[in-house]
From TrEMBL:
<dbReference type="GO" id="GO:0033194">
    <property type="term" value="P:response to hydroperoxide"/>
</dbReference>
<protein>
    <submittedName>
        <fullName>Peroxide stress protein YaaA</fullName>
    </submittedName>
</protein>
<dbReference type="GO" id="GO:0005829">
    <property type="term" value="C:cytosol"/>
</dbReference>
<dbReference type="InterPro" id="IPR005583">
    <property type="entry name" value="YaaA"/>
</dbReference>
<dbReference type="Pfam" id="PF03883">
    <property type="entry name" value="H2O2_YaaD"/>
</dbReference>
Length: 259
């Protein structure tokens, strides 16, 4: 099983640690495209900080984010599961997992990243700023760049198993399944139901997805089909409705009454 997660805009900057080593990251098929994005981002932030702020969508009070990106090659690193923060990651709480659940996180999870394409929880990375909707001079739209390079890494990570796609809309275009793969992809939408009315609430959508992933890791069952995955979520206590299969996979709606 492969569970694709979005990154978080908020990141916890490591205070100490070895500098970034691209060749040590998992999924080495991405080393060359990672290097191109990293070198381009660092050069832009180092040589043209004002333009970099505009490109990255940063305000006048966020100059430290540009300086941080300019210094990425020598910045301290930590495990990705300690760098990414935010609502989903707080609910998931990867560092507190124990035993088999922690081992499953290492092999099941991959985080989509504007800078690195995909990273595993144990990959050592610095805190950085590069959203998936940025157009980077010399590279072009970051999403388009990774769309051209990410497929071999996703397929390698997934093997013959199910792909559970929890990415946000910004990162969904980084990789889209081909016709042969779509049949083993599921996407999740979290709906809050009140008095018969349903709506998506971003904050609680992220939190619920984090709790679902944690439950899956602790349960340990690797469903092989979208239908069996829906049954697994129901067994774990979630209300799940199956949608039709499509080009992006089979959509499952998780309906919650309490947030």
């Amino acid at each position: 099983m492969l569970i694709l997660l979005p990154p978080s805009e908020g990141k916890t900057a490591p205070r100490r640690g070895l500098p970034l080593e691209l060749s040590a990251l998992s999924l080495p098929v991405l080393t060359a495209p990672r290097s191109t994005v990293l070198e381009t981002l660092v050069a832009l932030c180092r040589d043209q900080p004002e333009r970099a702020a505009q490109v990255l969508g940063l305000g006048s009070t966020q100059a430290d984010e540009v300086r941080r990106d300019a210094a990425l090659p020598g910045a301290p690193t930590a495990r990705a599961d300690r760098v990414y923060s935010g609502v989903l990651y707080e609910a998931l709480d990867l560092p507190s997992l124990q035993g088999a659940a922690k081992r499953r996180a290492t092999s099941w999870l991959a985080v989509t990243s504007g800078l690195f394409g995909l990273v595993r929880p144990g990959d050592r990375i610095p805190a950085y700023r590069l959203s998936g909707d940025v157009t980077l001079p010399g590279v072009g739209p970051v999403a388009t760049w990774w769309n051209r390079h990410l497929s071999p890494a996703v397929l390698e990570a997934a093997g013959s198993g199910l792909v559970v796609d929890l990415r946000s809309s910004t990162y969904a275009s980084f990789w889209r399944p081909d016709a042969d793969t779509a049949g083993r992809v599921v996407t999740l939408r979290v709906l809050h139901e009140v008095d018969g009315s349903r709506k998506v609430v971003s904050h609680f959508n992220k939190a619920t997805k984090g709790r679902i992933v944690r439950a899956l890791l602790e349960d340990g069952t690797a469903a092989r089909t979208p239908r069996r995955f829906a049954e697994q979520l129901r067994d774990l206590g979630w209300t799940v409705e199956e949608g039709p299969a499509g080009k992006a996979g089979t959509r499952l709606d998780v309906v919650v009454a309490e947030l």
